[in-house]
Amino acid sequence: MRFFRFFVIAWGSLLGMIFVKPILAFCKWESKREEERELKKNKEII
Q: d(Cα 37, Cα 17) in Å, to the nearest integer?
């Protein structure tokens, strides 16, 4: 029973790593695009 719990935790953390990394990368990419958009707006104003 203890082994099963360990297996579930290990599998869950593995899946979490697989799914969390792309989500974090996407969030970074989104914020980067947002910053670039802000810079373009500022340049147009100037």
A: 30
